[in-house]
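Run folding on both entries below.
>entry_1
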Amino acid sequence: MFVPRLILTGVVLFLLIAGIALGAARPTSGAAPETRYVVRAGDTLWAIAAGRYDGDVREAIWRIEERNGIHGSTLQPGDVLMLP
């Protein structure tokens, strides 16, 4: 009778500690917060991505398109883009 109660107490204690540990670990949203970018005349997604991201420009363009719901490369001056 004592052993099952001890096991139950151990399991409850483990779950409590695991819950606290998982609650304290917060996911990060990346190296930097999102920034807003106002499109100017002549801007292209390629130029915006190439000037602000390291690595593959195509991946940066895809991320910008996904974040802003852009389908195609047409930008209008005054558009506000969220840059992830």
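>entry_2
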Amino acid sequence: MSTQPIELTDIPPIQLARRARYLMCPPHFYDVNYVINPWMEGNLHRSSRERAELQWRNLYRALTRLIDVELIAPQSGLPDMVFTANAGLERSGTVVLSRFYHQERQSEEQCFRQWFQEAGYTVVELPTDVPFEGEGDALFSIDGSRLWVGYGRRTARESHRFLARALRVEVISLHLTDPRFYHLDTCFAPLDDGYVMYYPDAFDAASLEKIEEYYPLEKRILVSEEDAIRFACNAIHVDGTVVLNCVSRELTGRLESAGFRVVQIDLSEFIKAGGAAKCLVMNLATEKISLNL
């Protein structure tokens, strides 16, 4: 598998800059080939690869104005590899590799493992019987002082102690209770300046208490069900800019009144598989670990 950037029309080469860096995977083999979450039900083979390519490119172009992007080559037979947020969780050059819950995605692990190793990251692997789905279920607070980790759907709570030890960070466990919001990044988004955007009905009462204890009322942006099912919380934040799927005027106004610049990109083809903006990127260390990519 190549670790070189894929040649795509109108996509500039990766720059060696001290900016945020994300990992993305072009959707050349994207489709809804199976059902492993509620969003896939009724959408088997109903996605348009042509529209998916266009939407992905629009997201890529928007992001490369703000950050640096690395690309991993997509692999035939792995339609969900485009959702690189699920590849693992990175901190200071160490990547905790995902252990996918569903067999349909487990072959992705070797592809991501090879990419991270060849890129110079230290790869930590959990026991094979401990499901963990990377940044899909694990999100750092903006200051990096704590790690919010979901459990109950695709990530086992047992994985949380491994994460705390491997990454030397305080882990706060959040129980996901709505099957539509099967990953934490579908219903919870830490934002700049101490804000958080989340859909309360995706969590149990104890988890909501943890969120409310940490984030003061004026910093909480609660998302309606209407916007939650548009994957509003599946948002990318970069230096005051929030990039997300198309959402309501009310939520856009709330974000803008909090000082954020909002960039909306139609990602409807990916919602058919249960993902949107954040699912399509994985955070990497700001600086390259190795130049031999």
